[in-house]
Design goal:
Elements: E1 30-31, E2 33-39, H1 45-55, E3 63-69, E4 74-80, H2 83-86, H3 89-94, E5 99-105, E6 120-123, E7 129-138, H4 141-151, H5 167-182, H6 184-191, E8 197-204, E9 209-213, E10 222-226, E11 229-233, H7 236-241, E12 245-249, E13 254-259, E14 262-267, E15 275-276, H8 278-283, E16 289-290, E17 293-294, H9 295-309, E18 316-319, H10 325-335, E19 343-345, H11 358-361, E20 369-371, H12 373-376, E21 380-385, H13 392-403, E22 408-413, E23 426-427, H14 435-438, H15 441-448, E24 452-455, H16 458-465, E25 472-473, H17 475-478, H18 493-496
Parallel strand pairs: 15-25, 18-21, 21-22, 22-24
Antiparallel strand pairs: 1-23, 2-5, 2-11, 3-4, 3-5, 6-7, 7-8, 8-9, 9-13, 10-11, 10-12, 13-14, 16-17, 19-20
Helix pairs in contact: 4-5, 5-6, 9-10, 9-16
Organism: Pseudonocardia kunmingensis
Domain Glutamine amidotransferase type-2: 33-261
InterPro entries: GATase_2_dom (IPR017932), Ntn_hydrolases_N (IPR029055), PRTase-like (IPR029057), PRTase_dom (IPR000836), PurF (IPR005854), PurF_N (IPR035584)
């Protein structure tokens, strides 16, 4: 076979860009991506990666892709849509090799386009290929973009276009540019210390699988062992589904390389752990373990602490399924109030590709949740949810429960008020859109129409994670960002108070969308209306 090539699937009528998210009226906080990698000669690595991505589907539902190498050639297959829509048996059977990199994506600023689907791919000057999947968000995208632009400018001053508009693509471009001279491993050790922000990376050339985690370890990344190989994944649940045993977490600031010579570990930066506490609250699957702590157990404990912090006289505790269920169980245990199912969720409402009529659209939350009237009627309810972002979902929910006959509706939230945007890989909203940034708890209670409202405290949430506070990032709740946000990107703390109008260094309003327009994540929060 010849040198590496990438075979990419263009958008099809079968998988057009999603037209409606049933949660579009109040989208939940969105984790950007799930990553998966496997090195296992003799195994069907494409199928293993498919199932691994299936287990990580909750982390990204807009695009999916798998890159496979047989040692001589790398093939990339990706498209818009869910993992089960992008891949079928025929496609998977054509992806032959001994190592694979997989990715499922949520776009935030970077558009929902085929070009921005991952794994990203580059061919180096020596003809070898590099495929890369990224979970997280960088804060020095502008700096990296300028470096790529300089490399793509020829002697006449003409610049070749950058094919995609994500920070992940910039990392791949810079890796491939350096790897031609040094090899991929050395290129990564040179590049990664200059990359700032949150990144859990899985990438590969024809022979070797690599995994790297930023020095703060913001996003999770774990290493697993197969009988005939190794697996790296965003969550332990993805190891479980492919029958891999958990070995350990990839350490913050660590680069792993896995090939025929075995597993090698290198350090590219000193670890300064700041794991995302919101993984425990909402983002990760409940059957995942992070830093030795069961996510389900953490959520149940949050519910118990919520019952202690915000007790109320009521007849029934019900969750907003599914993400509110463990905390509701904990609230019932802590309060002694019976637990029940008062809401039924349509399990098949994800991102639909069918545009509903205006009549159906007005049903809003009923597309997703429906009350069990015989359970709710005449009851004083405690309704447990994972978070409040804009408040629209809770407002519709409270109204729906009252219409179903609830006497009282007391809302309890298994996270503190979300008051700040995330710049490390969660797409919340702009600060102006976050209901808790402009209203106190009583104001939010009135806004959603509840009889009472209580959020778990930051201390209670952190205690439930069983991690030291010093090792966690809780910036979306506290505004304390552990990774500095660069002034040149106009992300300084003083500007987070004035999100509506981007300003230049003199303080004057600026029409420039800002240097982070190429990036994705919440980095464009300053420029959104």
């Amino acid at each position: 076979m010849g040198p590496s090539s990438a075979r990419n699937q263009q958008p099809t009528e079968r998988n057009p860009e999603p037209e409606l998210d049933p949660e579009a009226h109040d989208p939940a906080p969105r984790e950007e991506c799930g990553v998966f990698g496997v090195w296992a000669p003799g195994e069907d690595v494409a199928n293993l990666t498919y199932y691994g991505l299936y287990a990580l589907q909750h982390r990204g539902q807009e695009a999916a892709g798998i890159a496979v190498s047989d040692g001589r050639r790398m093939v990339v297959f990706k498209d818009l849509g869910l993992v089960s829509q992008v891949f079928d048996e025929q496609v998977l059977s054509s992806l032959k090799g001994h190592l694979a990199v997989g990715h499922c994506r949520y776009s935030t600023t970077g558009s929902t386009t085929w070009e921005n689907a991952q794994p990203t791919f580059r061919t180096t000057a020596t003809g070898s290929g590099i495929a890369l999947g990224h979970n997280g968000n960088l804060v020095n995208t502008a700096e990296l973009r300028d470096e790529v632009a300089a490399r793509r400018t020829d002697a006449r001053g003409e610049r070749r276009a950058i094919p995609a508009s994500t920070d992940s693509d910039l990392i791949t471009e810079l890796l491939s540019a350096t790897a031609a001279d040094t090899g991929v491993e050395e290129a990564a050790l040179r590049l990664l210390p200059r990359v700032r922000g949150a990144f859990s990376l899985v990438f590969a050339d024809e022979q070797t699988l690599y995994a790297a985690r930023d020095p703060h370890g913001v996003r999770p990344l774990v290493l697993g062992r197969l009988e005939r190989g190794w697996v790296v994944a965003s969550e332990t649940a993805a190891l479980d589904i492919v029958g891999a045993s958990m070995v350990r977490e990839v350490e913050p600031g660590e680069l792993l390389a896995i090939d025929a010579d075995g597993l090698r570990s290198s350090r590219f930066a000193a670890p300064e752990p700041k794991g995302c506490v919101f993984e425990y609250v909402y983002l990760a699957r409940p059957d995942t373990t992070i830093s030795g702590r069961s996510v389900h157990a953490a959520r149940v404990e949050i519910g118990r602490r919520l019952a202690d912090e915000y007790p109320v006289e009521a007849d029934l505790v019900i969750p907003v399924p599914e993400s509110g269920t463990p905390a509701a169980i904990g609230y019932a245990q802590g309060s002694g109030i019976p637990y029940g199912q008062g809401l039924v969720k349509n399990q098949y409402v994800g991102r639909t590709f069918i545009q509903p009529s205006q009549t159906i659209r007005q049903l809003g939350i009923r597309l997703k949740l429906n009350p069990l009237r015989e359970v709710i009627r005449g009851k004083r309810l405690v309704v447990v949810d994972d978070s409040i972002v804009r408040g629209n979902t809770q407002r519709a929910l409270v109204r729906m429960l009252r219409e179903a006959g609830a006497l009282e509706v007391h809302v309890r939230i298994a996270s503190p008020p979300v008051r700040w945007p995330c710049f490390y890989g969660i797409d919340f909203a702009t600060r102006a859109e976050l209901v808790a940034s402009g209203l106190d708890t009583e104001g939010v209670r009135r806004s959603i129409g509840a009889d009472s409202l209580g959020y778990v405290s930051v201390d209670g949430m952190i205690a439930a994670s069983e991690q030291p506070r010093s090792r966690l990032c809780a910036a979306c709740f506290t505004g304390e960002y552990p990774i500095p946000l660069p002034e040149e990107a106009r992300l300084g703390k003083h500007l987070l108070e004035e999100l509506a109008v981007p300003r230049d260094v003199s303080g004057a309003a600026s029409g420039d969308p800002g240097p982070l327009a190429v990036g994705y994540g919440a980095a464009d929060a300053l420029g959104r209306p």
